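Q: What structure does this chain adopt?
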Amino acid sequence: MKIIIGIVSQRFKKVFSTNKIALLLFSTIFLFSGCSWQQYFVISNETLSDITIEYSIPIPSDGFGIFNTSPILYKLNSSGSMDWDNQLSIIDNDTSLFAVKIVLPPKSAVVIGELSNDNYETHNQKFINGRIFNLEKIILNKNGNFTEITPENFDIFFKKTSGNIEYTIK
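A:
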């Protein structure tokens, strides 16, 4: 009888110890994976024409800029959403360090910035993690019709859509 109780006791200790390790591992994974999210700043072209996009950003004297000079271009799927698996090549036709000039093809979208672990509400909000709204201006040319977007009118054009801050050109 003492042998059986000893064996059961050892197995219980082993199982309990294994469960503690599994719980600790699961908690650590959850802690590091569950707390991070991104909001992307996107311009989508749902038209059948090319759109020229020019934008400039000053480098912030302190903090980290939301917008960058390394845009990423994606194809739109049939529902008009970005196809994250279908990245397209992009050419920056502006040679300066703090400006971008690209052609946005029909049925595509370009990511021009991102905000990490914060919710965008308005261009003049206080951002966490030292983020700065560093957009100077965006100029869009659609068939000779120009639109200029500045920080002051940014929120008129860009709207929250499924986790992104997006301006859709139709």
